[in-house]
Every structure is written in structure tokens, then in C-alpha cells.
Amino acid sequence: MPETLNTQPARPERLLRIHDVEPLVGLKKSSIYAGMKATPPTFPQCVRLSVRAVAWRESDIANWQAQRTQKGGE
Hints:
single chain, 74 residues, alpha+beta, three-stranded antiparallel beta sheet, 3 strands, 42% helix, 15% strand
């Protein structure tokens, strides 16, 4: 009898708005945007949702946090 594969669709990635990102990373909005504009960027880029709305991929924030932990917050 053949095995059945789990055919559930992958869960879409969660998008975090600025009010979710600020407490998660411990930075305020101005620092987050400054990090995005830095050369090279020191904070993940956002995803545009509409003309006046942006969000960040949860995985990008998690990767940024992991890198900061490894570097010791340089």
C-alpha cells in the first residue's frame, strides 16, 4: 500500500507591521528606517503592502535577530 504524502499547503509567511516589529527588536520606528537606509543596510527591507502600508517578513526579522546575537550586537 503506497504511503500518503502530507498535501497540506505551506503556511504563508507572516508579515509584521511596524507596531509588531518595534517591541520585537527593541528599536523605535526612526531607528528601523535608518537601518534600512544605511549603506550597507543594517536592518531588513520592508515589503510594500499598499501606498501607505509596509510590513516585514517574520523570517527576515528572525534572521536579523540571529545575526545580531552571533555578532554580539555590533
